[in-house]
Amino acid sequence: MSTPALPADFLRAIAESLPGDFLTREPGELQEYGRDWTRVYTPAPGAVAFPRTTDEVARFMVLCHQHRVAVVPSGGRTGLAGGAVAAKGEVVLSLKRMTRMDPLDLLGNTVRVQAGAVTEGVHQHCAPHGLTWPVDFASKGSSTVGGNIATNAGGVKVIRYGLTRQWVLGLQVVTAQGQVLELNGALEKNNTGVDLRQLFIGSEGTLGIITEATLKLTRLPGKQDVFLFAVPDVAAVLRLFRDAREAPLTLSAYEFFTDKCLARVQRHRKLRSPFEAPSGCYVLLESEGGDPDAVETWLGSLFERGLVTDGTQAQGVGQAAELWSLRESISESLSATGVLHKNDISLPVANLEAFCAELDAVFASRYPGWEICLFGHIGDGNLHVNVMKPDAVEKADFFAHAKQADHAMFDLVRKHGGSISAEHGIGLLKKDYLDYTRAPGELDLLRSLKRALDPQGILNPGKILDA
Length: 467
Description:
By secondary structure, the protein is an alpha+beta fold. Helix content is 34%, strand content 19%. The chain is built from 15 helices and 17 strands. Helix 9 packs across helix 12 and helix 13 runs antiparallel to helix 14 (395-415). The mean pLDDT is 94. Its cofactor is FAD.
């Protein structure tokens, strides 16, 4: 693969001022680091940079600014919106070497880490002290702190703990010009004007590069119960959720998936369903605490009232992991067993039922006879809509049809006050639809922020908004 040309004087300056292993143009590395999980765009970066410190990032950005070289910040590349794709000769700035995790502050319940620290590694770093950073996803083994923050990632525990931004006290950020900003430190309270840290959380690397973060920690949860229920359809998923909200327990996760998702997981991972009879949908519920007798009474009533058709409770950590694996293997299994078009949408929880009741009509009219794999975090209003490519349809035709069909679903999202992206961001895939969620005045303000913080447009160009 031929790589796009970078300015010779820029490459010379890199060689003279940064470590010898800082930059690579090796074709395999370009392929690997030029893409994320979307696999829609052909990667074509000009080079990949591997800094070890914030100082190296800052010196690198000074050179990029001087030579007008575009930069794509890169973490674990687990995003599904094309936000970490480098397809036009940009330099990928990978933070994979920036994995330092400092000792915990056990009085303030915080920890400072570099942006390349892996999510699961942070969990393991904190666990011996009885603490955790409660940001959790299926991709926790490869997603990084910097990427989580840059996309304000959600995940499976949002119903209990909220989004990533709730668990970030301070940020260290390098601007497009190479200036290093220390934003908020480890302060819980700082009422001194606009909270600049929030500008960078969820900005997908378009306004600055997050290099370190001070994370807020909480106590590890106590005993957790994990249940898997079988229900006939999405309407039943929502009825059970309404009931679980009033149950004598604390919900930490409420996930659902359809039978089509389960079939793909079983095909790819060879995992076994705990139920003999198939069902239209499944609910994975995780809870903390609660009076055991009251919980037992509630569980029994679910069958008596016809809210579930079958169910099982994990007996121990091993079985809990097995139940969770049915849910957490879905994205991987869908990608491994077919070509698909993904959507990640959210609705106000109160509007979910009305939205889902109308969603079937959209599928029937836009995807007649096509396989739809639906799953999501019902507890926070987040649905993942996956349309699988029929064997008889060419790939290019499939994506063209799917993108056009998105307008009908996004019209419905807008009607019910939702968002076209719940947790994967806008990146390249969603930017043509941003006006379904954002008003013209908001878009103007976003463009003004981009121009103010990145006047040359070199940070993750083309993501979220065109210049």
